[in-house]
């Protein structure tokens, strides 16, 4: 079916909330038939959000063609580029890329785009005539939308009237064979350029400083407006953050999605943001991480990066398993982000709303028609008026406390009693989630404040806040028990009855980080388990009760662990932005049913603690360690000086430091005691104070990760061991790295493979240099012989008696050790580490002290300038043994080390070199690539050589080669590479010559029995310190009118500093625009020439795999997409359009669906690029995939050798491709020059 839409790009003021915050230069997409009504609504109600000022959401059925007549009524060129659907790149790319025709639209022009709705899901479309992310661009002002592809036969209706819906973020989707459902679209976007009602920059009333705005669907409810009302005397008894989400004092936020209890719900999370990753969390509800995989993990939070899209199918529908009613907040879990307005509500109703009633503040309740294939909910009656009308609150005041919750609190009113669950109990009054007879486990928790010391250097938090067990409170206060995040345990199928007593001081702060504020309440908001949200959400949301405990109060909660949920995160929700980064978070670990919990040392019973041995009568016993990362902790040094404080107390910038389990081992405190290659050595410095996982060789392990606070994505990396991304799905991706944000949790399930009876250490670390520098690293210690402080798991063979003494620090570097003998034939590889000038682009940007691993046979050509240095990409066959010799020819590097990191200090670059691989097996004692723990020295000094033996174990894909000697210096200068593991029998060949090769970023992979393919390896890296052609530092990104960096200085956080690249190359947009300031042609090769980044040339239909790996160096995450293509990630059955949350250590193999040119097999230039416009794309993270027509038996000199079984598809009836600088197709009407 052909679906036609006439879409108009217009400039219109967009008001984000009833407080008058607005974007006076808003740009949006609207259907032509709605344009006049939109202008009328904006003119009549300029100071409030209007219904038609929302992201444009189009719909089509699977198999449809979507034809969009795009009319540009802006005063600048514009376009529509869609991510992930199939289209003709010549006609419908919505961009001016490479040598393709220009498919952008000049002011007043019209162009017709056609997209093939060939996969279910949501697809972002946006303007690529202007890819700038600053205020001068279009993206930040709202010029984007979504097309939803529904099952064939669907129709979409207005939820209030059930009339056909032309477009909208909320719909009822009906289908003759599938259940009807409610569908919501939540477009997250950040850095919104709003001004206040008076046209001024919004200001935080507590700090007097400019305040940011983060939004959903052109709507935001930032705390500053509510805080200002409180300071002006509104809402007596309200403090501030305690009512940030409360509708009783202020009315509803501008986004409220509504459903009836039990309604099927699909929510599409669309990342229309330009800069930040965000973590979406919806209270009360859960979904599968992969909605099409029943063995996928159950989650209720998910991180996503700009231009990524996530489908969320709520398990059990609105109200979840317990059929709860009330308001469930959804928000970004980065605390400054929802403080700045990025939140809304899903309202689950229990009685019909026909449009005749009003909320407690007098605002009308819109009608909501029931789904046609479900029983209609009852109508309201005086005795059962439904939510929220039975709650005894008063508008203008803080929400009331719930009945049967606070110890010594009130009984229910008659109206409340009429709505209570038939099995109501304290803590589960209106929805009791627990089945009758379920076993009960009870915990009494206390929230306290006490100083916490984080390391031996004296870094400390004088106002640490944490949860403790009531029985441990006095021991923790006296210092007899070391503070750590509280971890409690339960079995699947159990009920947890929780009592929380709030013993926190009622005031907090008064430091360099935060002014003195009141913190009068504390709640316990929990994830994943089932509970009654009206009384046990641990929050104060919408028209719900305030389910927190005031100072000195005790509140009761009931949680039901319905399945093996693994890590269940909990935290305070009343003052989370204020004090959660001080440590006020914890977790409940839900173990397999029938488990018992024990201390690792002696197997005594223990229900709490970050370390445990978990025993089970039917399943293998395992060891468990829980690691909770926190960021921007407001710490002070031992002399009381603040560590990286904000310029003004209370400013929500990225200030403070990072830690794991209230511990850190900063590299700055282990530097310059000899060569810095030994910063990780326990021989030199002693063991780090961070948590250490200990076990015997062969022990099963479950390493549990979660992020407790505050505003970052963190990238956990582990040497040597790997795990399944989805523990219950053996076909899921194998990993050695996992990125996650606040409230996300992951379980890493693996065995501690040993190496004889020798003890050894394995490094775990958070890969971004900011985290690593600040001390987020530690050890896994594997014992080959028995130790007295660690009991053996009962179902494992006992370890052999100890014959060797345990090591102790000596203050001196360790000696090297010979690698163990291989288990089969060995392939010899000789590499040389050298310093080499790395030229990133034709503008002259370069790293004069670049570091490169080069095959020994290629070194003369590189030094003579005949071959440009590139990151090492090594190919190995599955099961193959490699003996790798690395010779160190790196001369001394010049300090200081740049770019900066938080709490920076002088660092002397190491003169030693070492490397270690991902996904390959090796002996950690001899081949860690560094000097880790009490291992041997696995580095080579200047002029020396080190020998490693690696084995390509089971599993095909790509992994990184990391620099292990000096992560502070070597990585960001380029000392990294990749290993691509291929099926046995695969032969990599040079695509230009057809000769077999062992190395190369672009090869043809030939196999006698499997389809051959073209392989491109992209090593993404950031944090590079480059000089320009005149020898001046290339400035850090900023926001000048061309979207490039300022002329000097730095305007950004440490995590954004430095330059970006693919394989030591980049193509900054700002440099192109300085030469030719025609924004819509910034990607155009006819104007600027081809980009410096890798440019693979292939035939239409060629099988293509892109190995994408993030080698270095900063915390800001990335996303990646290829125009006109989707992919099968790791060969899995589910495809994708945009990969997100890419962080240091991540890697994936992306097989292009349909091969080069996509399913249409169209020739042309296809951009591959970052989806993060600010600043990854602007700073040069993009390139071209050039696809030529397919010709059987044709050798094309532009592509190179096409042998090795790469069969081009039969030729189409199209003209031959012309030279690269000429258009590959005719000019089209509706575009300008």
Automatic annotation (TrEMBL):
Residues 58-152 form the Plastocyanin-like domain. Keywords: Metal-binding. Coiled coil: none annotated. Residues 364-374 have a biased composition (Low complexity). Residues 1212-1225 have a biased composition (Basic and acidic residues). InterPro entries: Cu-oxidase-like_N, Cu_oxidase_Cu_BS, Cupredoxin. GO terms for molecular function: copper ion binding. Gene3D superfamilies: Cupredoxins - blue copper proteins. Residues 795-823 have a biased composition (Pro residues). Residues 360-383, 791-825, 1030-1061, 1208-1233 are annotated as: Disordered. This is Plastocyanin-like domain-containing protein. It comes from Caldinitratiruptor microaerophilus.
